[in-house]
Specification:
By secondary structure, the chain is α+β, with helices and mostly antiparallel strands. The protein is built from six helices and nine strands; from the N terminus they run E-E-E-H-H-E-E-E-H-E-H-E-E-H-H.
């Protein structure tokens, strides 16, 4: 299906655990949850027509909300990087909103502005698949060296997801990052595993710390 569309087979049963741990799980995630009924869910690039539904999903799931022009800014500037998870009937049940940045050493890196999955569809592996697709696109299209994000210090569930499932690490604490004054954990993830698979073969991966050693 290529990087822009992944069909995710979801089977409902009493316990929520991944069926497959193979490398292909990033493209075909089969998970178990509640009634032994299978259906196909699409993970695909977000289109301009999806942005309002992404906004609605954000309002349902997260305390950090954005004006519509911010969604359009992402969609128009980096159309390759944002993805949605949709039911067969087209209902958007999750999304990742992402962009590119440059650090002080001019190394390109990706940033996750927002990641959300509706409560009814959590623990199905959708967040991991969305993040995998966005990370791959960052490397393929912009040669990103790493990806960053922010998470509230009080959001233990999200912090656990990012650290234990998605392999992010805390890089620093940013005081009063959020509008209500709460601190944020700034987190990063090295994209070298994606680089080895998807980056142009004639480019050499150089991580932030490697570049600084030679300056």
């Amino acid at each position: 299906n290529g990087p822009n569309l992944t069909r995710c087979m979801v089977r409902y049963s009493p316990v929520c655990v991944p069926i497959s741990k193979s490398s292909s799980a990033t493209k075909h995630c089969t998970v178990v949850r509640a009634s032994y009924e299978e259906y196909t869910m699409n993970i695909r690039n977000a289109k301009p027509t999806d942005l309002f539904s992404m906004r609605d999903c954000n309002l349902d799931c997260l305390p950090e909300n954005y004006v519509m022009k911010y969604y359009f800014y992402h969609g128009l500037s980096w159309p390759q990087l944002s993805y949605i998870a949709e039911e067969a009937d087209g209902e958007i049940v999750g999304y990742v909103l992402a962009k590119m940045e440059e650090d002080p050493d001019d190394l390109p890196y990706g940033h996750i502005t927002s990641l959300a999955v509706k409560r009814s569809h959590r623990r199905l592996g959708l967040a991991k698949t969305l993040m995998t697709m966005a990370s791959r696109a960052m490397v393929e299209n912009f040669q990103a060296r790493y990806v960053s994000l922010h998470v509230r210090k009080s959001n233990r569930a999200a912090l656990s997801l990012y650290k234990k499932t998605l392999n992010f690490a805390v890089s620093e604490i940013e005081p009063k990052y959020y509008a209500d004054g709460e601190d944020a954990y700034a987190m990063k993830k090295d994209l070298k595993p994606f680089w080895d698979l998807y980056a142009p073969s004639d480019l050499h991966f150089k991580a932030e710390k490697e570049k600084n050693k030679h300056d």
